[in-house]
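Repro:
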Amino acid sequence: MNRLKIIADDRIPYLKGVLEPFAEIRYLPGHAITSGELKDASALLTRTRTRCDRNLLNNTGVRFIGTATIGYDHIDTHYCEEKGIVWKNAPGCNASSVNQYIASTLTTLAERFDFSLKDRVMGVVGVGHVGSLVVRTAELLGMRVYLCDPPRVRNEGICGFISLEGILRECDLISFHVPLQKEGEDRTWHMIDDRLLKKLLPDAILINTSRGEVADGAALKSAIRQKRLKHLVLDVWENEPLIDRELLDMTDIGTPHIAGYSADGKANATAIVIGELSRFFGLGLDGWKPGNLPPPEN
């Protein structure tokens, strides 16, 4: 019986040594993973640096792709489904970390600009793994919170949600936690555009920790210049890492895509991917989790 062959991004944390008893595994930089390297491989473990499309996967043996990330827009899902290639991501792996970032951001803004969070009405757009935690945190901080998630309403028939128009009408602090969808009914690419920004309440605060392309950077700058947007927090940017430095200078808090960048978040992502790989190939590692995570420096 041929031994399982796996190609893995060498920057996936806590992975080395886990799969060696079960497979022949080769670690490569994400940019160095090529079609030739995948010729005899059955599985690919990756991050966002590797574009998984026809050019990479055609005429290879890959049957399973696991990405140790929440986002999966680097995977051509239509091609994979057409070819019967199973792909899995790691939804919710860093939800707790992003929630902590939002909590820190809210308290920092309140202190810096001398307002009470209890006087603010928060809108959470996208109520999945991260958004659900943010809702709970905002409520614990005494805020009134409105929820917006059209796909969940449509798919689950749940009540207690309002439309995006309702969020813009009722909320003076809005936080976005949506995936990047470039087309279709639930398109989020440039969801934050000029039309949306013109409907903001006075003194509105906008927070985006989802994906950079969810916001139109030019529209954000225009809204700030015209004083239609008072406060802006961005952790994600269009064209990362070649970000708009002018827009960065306009933010009240600007960070380099680190809201979910935590040791536990990365460990969770690796654990999820290992579990999915194990279930697909029957390796017996379904409940594996990394141990000995480093404690915080402070």
